[in-house]
Amino acid sequence: MSATHEQANLMLKLYDLRREPKLREAREWYMTSFHPQSMEEMMKTTAPNSEGGTFVRMVISYWEMVANLANRGLLDEELLFETSGEQWIVWERMKPLVAAWRAAFKNPHAFGQLEEHVKRYEAWREKRAPGSNDVMRQMFAKMRAEAAAKTTTAH
């Protein structure tokens, strides 16, 4: 598939949304502070009406929306894959929580758009750069451990 001008313009609009100051702040928080491995851990930092809760909702809903557009063919997926990997990071951080989240809210489809999109992203990346998914997971496991160590020493 070759990207159309309309798809390129939509990508630029999505990029502009990512630059919005509050979403940029939320994305920064998500990347540096969101490392839960259970719903209980998540609720400690993302309680309703907390800044963390707001930030998580902003980031997850943004990438769920982008994935939905891509899944429907409204975005050229290869163009998206070539220009962003953030959706993969968002999914990796959410993955340990998704089953519990879906059960808690009785919604087996929660985050389904992002999940399906990221499956294709991983296959695309693995085809182009074999082993890169595992290397990225190892890097994020190390980051999680470092974040946990900082939290432990701070208390």
Task: Report mean pLDDT, rounded to a whole number.
Answer: 93
Give the tally of β-strands: 0
Helix content: over 70%
Q: Report the total helices.
A: 8
Strand content: under 5%
Distance between the termini: 52 Å
What's the multimeric state?
single chain
Shape: globular
Could you list the spans in which at least 5 consecutive residues all have pLDDT below 50?
A: none
Q: What is Rg?
A: 16 Å
Number of domains: 1
Strand pairing plus helix content: what structural class? mainly alpha
Succession of helices and strands = HHHHHHHH
The biggest beta sheet is recorded as: none
Reconstruct the topology from this structure.
Layout: H1 5-18, H2 21-33, H3 39-45, H4 51-71, H5 77-83, H6 86-104, H7 112-128, H8 132-154
